[in-house]
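Customer ticket, subject: "Can you confirm the structure for Nuclease SbcCD subunit D?"

Message body: Hello, I'm evaluating your service for our small team and ran a test protein. I'd like someone to confirm that this is what the system normally returns, since I don't have a reference to compare against.
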Amino acid sequence: MRFLHTSDWHLGRSFHRVGLLGAQAAFIDHLVATARETRADAVLVAGDVYDRAVPPLAAVELYDEALHRLAALGVPVVMISGNHDSARRLGVGSGLLERAGIHLRTDPRAAGRPAVLADEHGEVACYGLPYLEPALVREEFGVERPSHAAVLAAAMDRVRADLAARPATTRSVVLAHAFVAGGTASDSERDITVGGVAAVPAGVFDGVDYVALGHLHGCQTITDRVRYSGSPLAYSFSEAAHRKSVWLVDLGADGAVTAERADCPVPRPLARIRGRLDDLLVDPALETAEDAWVEATLTDPVRPAEPMARLTRRFPHLLNLVLEPDRDPGDPGASYAERLGGRTDQEIAEDFVGHVRGGGPDPRERAVLQEAFDTVRAGQALRESGR
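Agent reply: Thanks for trying us out. I re-ran your input and got the following:
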């Protein structure tokens, strides 16, 4: 059986105030064309269909168009909700859509209920595990201490229990939206550390033939059977070196997996340039950046006059300007942001306690601080989920 594995569409998102709806529509065209040309048996969408819980109307219309076009091809779709989606909103009408071959899995309670597809070699059970926020699903999965690893392990127990009751020849696919250990993050993914350590071990998915992951925006292989497709478009300059693609996955009669990448259309390349302003304006090595979306980092010790206007004359698609003067972060002239660079909220809070009290927090106080941060993030996740 042949799958197209994609994720993290983030419909409705912009890139440094540049609208991307046209580029996202071009990706949908590409996805439909690839499904047709490769004779894909199904499309797997591993979450973050939208960029926010209440997406703009144009994004909803593009989503609707994508499903209609795939259904018209007769290509089933298995889709889960991600941490950016409102699971309840995305799941509206799932029962009716299933009749058209669109299998939405947005309810954690359905973790053990697969969409069953079939080819000439038999059945393939496709289990959809939507993004599982530990604080919100701990009771459903009966975990004592909520964490990403605990709730995913409990969900996978349900998958394996259902699979064990099926014929031994049944092949299996799991869609999940999570941060799996070994993956490389970029700047454009929303933090999911609430509920404990975000990363879960790849071994939690043992026992299934293929795991289609979403959340991380770079295409990457955790194991031969566990892969991220990455986002089809770049959503931060940290993705400048990414090759955007979807996975074309072939699942053999014996469960063997082979996969290759199908490149996605690129609306405009990204470039990150760094140096002193006068050098950037004349450096011949930067000619390729003149037609790219550009992030420029200026290292001049003193802020130069009108840097944005001067850079834009050479780089008309300059979108982001960063000032990082060449000086020691310990320099009294360094900004507050420079001094805090790379530190977590917990570390900053602990430093503050040490500063005002003359001594850092003890283990009990550290635990209280961590619980406070988790509570705040859980409340934010609850609001964004639309519940």
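A couple of notes from the result: The first strand starts at residue 2 and ends at 6. DSSP finds eleven helices and 17 strands in the chain. Feel free to reply with more questions.
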